[in-house]
Amino acid sequence: MLKLEAETVNAFIEPCLSVFEKLTPKVGRVVVGAVYVEAMKVSNSDVSMSCMISGSLEGKVVLSMKSDVALEIAEDMVGEAVDFLDDNAQSAIKELMTMVVGNAAVELGKKDLDINIAPVTFSYGFQEQIGSPSCPYPVTVPLLCDLGTVEIDLAFY
Amino acid sequence: MVMNDLTVMIVDDSKLMRTMLTKILESSGYKVVAVLEDGFELLEKYAQIKPDLVLLDVIMPKMNGLEALELLLAKEPDASVIIVTSAGKEANVIKAHELGAKNFIIKPFDRDKVIEIIDQVMSN
Description:
The structure holds 2 protein chains of 2 kinds.
Chain A: H1 6-23, E1 30-32, E2 36-37, E3 47-55, E4 59-65, H2 67-78, H3 87-109, E5 115-117, E6 121-124, E7 139-145, E8 149-156
Antiparallel strand pairs in A: 1-7, 2-7, 3-4, 3-5, 3-6, 4-8, 7-8
Chain B: E1 7-11, H1 15-27, E2 31-36, H2 39-49, E3 53-56, H3 65-75, E4 81-85, H4 90-99, E5 103-106, H5 111-123
Parallel strand pairs in B: 1-2, 1-3, 3-4, 4-5
Helix pairs in contact in B: 2-3, 3-4
């Protein structure tokens, strides 16, 4: 099992805080909850954005939240009312995820970790499998926001 | 608003980003002549449209922005391209400059910063 260092985890938390603040102020105050590890974790949220990464770290990063939280975030980003997670709303929160991982890659680059990012995939309506045989113990960071909880999962091989 | 005749092509797989950049550019007097979703479309349509500037995302499905930049500049060495991306790691910035990008805009961006960089590139 890959042992994730705190500074690697922090490299993903910091961009979450800064990107949320800049793009979706409606999220409000964000408190970083207790980091945990759950064997073969399955997300308990119905909206997930997943991003495969390769290079110095291999695996995937997942940002997940309940659909009502996703709707509020999308509405804030798009700047108009959003009634359901249509293409426009999905595009918005996928972009949020891309920025989080992209900014994390910049931070990791400063620590001589070179990572490449694939396009973000969006899933809605089912609970994403985070843990896998190649990464049975993903690390989860809950971000407790005024709108609800957003979780970031780091599943590296 | 300062009106000008400068034309811009936006290439980004994110609808939100295409909309945001279009609004920023149009509110600053630039004319957005094409809004495309990937590198293949850029390579197909650039020669017909010949914009003064291309704003090009990096992380896109099918063909990423750096691959598209390399292929575009091989065919159109005078094309002016600014990379607009959240993948602003040093290696990408260096590669984009080596390939011939005029500048780099990091997402999330401020409207004023976007216009400052575009104005700077276009004035050169």
